[in-house]
Amino acid sequence: MSIDLELYKVFVSIATCGSINKASQELFVTQSAVSQSLKNLEKELDCKLFERQRQGLVLTNKGKDLFENIYKPIKDLENAEIKLKQKLIGKKILTICGSEILIKHFVLNKLSKFINYDIRILNHLSTKDMIISVENNECDFTIIKNYQQPKKTDLICYNLSSLNYVIFYNPKLVTLENIYNYPIVIKEFGSKSRNQVEKDLEDEFNKFNNKIQVGHDSLIIDLVKNYSCVGFAPKEYLDNNFKIYKPSAMKIYIQILYKQNNSNALTFIS
Fold this sequence. Notes:
By secondary structure, this protein is of the alpha/beta class. It contains 10 helices and 10 strands.
């Protein structure tokens, strides 16, 4: 039986991205092409590999078995292709993992040292998968928040910066005199940053008309920018359109995680 490796590459991309849309962006193909590849693979293997749930596409038990067996070989193949292309074109490649908002604020303006590199930015991975990517040499480094380094690891954790959280508002949409009459937009309960909120800060949140809980700081900022509400997010992400109502003691550290001998990571840090 001939094996179509492209189908398995698509499968791994869907599994790591959690959606056909994100997989299509990663693979630079249409959503319909990704969907068709998945259908072809499921037909060839005669089993369903994903099921759709509220959080997106989730692997079935057979899908999990397949993923565990082929993830590393597929990634090894992709890395081999990248290294070969790198030799052929005579260019180095820089690969970075991180969330969209961290990449935007802490990476993009620091890439001038890599003007002659081909740059790959992976912003769809979970924190766990980003760390695994560094461990498996699939990326040069990942930018991460509040990493708790285990005792046994060959990864280096470099403290790059910090995020200082504040309560803020858009003066074009919110009046300071009646600020508590507006809803406050905060990270959802159970998230890492929300778990760091102390009681006096929760008491401050409760003074507002009501709470709107969301998953990302970028959405908080977008909502405050366009609607009559107050937000709680890092002041480092805010532009001059916003006013700070109250600072807080809450701080989150931004770190770079890399392997000790990775020259690209060391160049970025320098």
